[in-house]
Amino acid sequence: MSLSVAKGTNWRRSIVVKIFLVCFVCIHIPLIALLLNFGTGASSNPLSVGLVVLVATLIGTVACLATMWWLTLPLRNLAKAISQYRAGGAFSEDQLSKYGEDEIAVVTRAVCGMVGEISALAERVNEEPGLDPLTGLMNASAVYGVPLPRLPAQVEGGIDIIVAIFELEAIEAVSAKHGREVADLALVAVGDLVRLHFAPRQIAARMSATTFMLLFADDAPHVVHDCCEAIRRNVEQLEVGPLVQGSLRLTFGLAPRRGDEAMADLLHRADMALFRAKDTLRTGLEMLKP
User: Dihedral sign, CA of 101, 212, 266, 196?
Assistant: First the structure.
């Protein structure tokens, strides 16, 4: 998916349209209140009419302010994350709203992609390892630096690339109930299973606290599905410390690469497939068609 506003934003989902509708409704609340007051045959003396208009105006004002606050909350969260990042802190991508098609979501996804690419460049300059310390997989910064056009196994017509993103759904509850140490052991076990079933492929990463990424190059769709299903099934059967089988669950989102699509766009489409699978309360594999 392109990150440009022109291609990525449906006008019906535009933040401008949402703001216009909110303002239009809130402005007309006093008029609606007057029509209801006269239509129901209520008292029409000047004092009661004035009270109706005053109360309706106050309700419309509060509703407008509250809705505007809610609509612009993702933008404030993005500004806070950028300020924290510029001050030397971590970029809190998990707290941002990247889903949707309005202008704020498009800008948020673009910023997340650029921060990832900047982090990858900084990591290469500093010669720091691009590995997650718990799972031994690549980290998010290293993934954004993967040069897709130069992957091996080039074949006629180009490389067929599929990205799978999966979320370890119960890990935060495990940390809250059994402690951070048990959650870390579960992540280590998941990393081991990923390496076992994903080998000999090399590009697998832990993108955030709960999400992982697998990159398949020149694998048939059924091979991709079989690999993901094997990882999902074995994770559900894990027993780590006090955790019994079924305590850990995975939800997958898959997306095939389109043309010369950049890594940030490809990751976003796989993330959207994952979000769609979670939104429909499914635990399994969700493929986003090219």
Answer: negative
The rounded distance, in Å, linking the Cα atoms of 187 and 168 is 9
Cα end-to-end distance, the chain, whole Å: 10
Cα–Cα distance for residue pair 135/153, rounded to 1 Å: 27
Distances from the Cα of 262 to the Cα of 7, 94, 259, angstroms: 16, 21, 9
Q: Which residue range forms the structural domain that includes residue 150?
A: 138-287
Q: Are residues 215 and 84 in the same domain?
A: no
Chain position carrying tokens 């900084």: 122
| Number of domains forming the structure of the chain | 3
Q: Name 120's Cβ contacts closer than 8 Å, sequence gap at least 6.
A: 130, 141, 142, 143, 144, 145
Question: Model's pTM, two decimal places?
Answer: 0.57
Q: What is the pLDDT of residues 257-273, one digit of tens each?
A: 887 777 888 888 888 88
Please answer whether residues 168 and 238 qualify as being in contact, where contact means their C-beta atoms are separated by less than 8 angstroms. Answer: no
Amino acid at 248: L
Both 161 and 280 in a single domain?
yes
Per-residue confidence band for 50, with pLDDT thresholds at 50, 70 and 90: confident
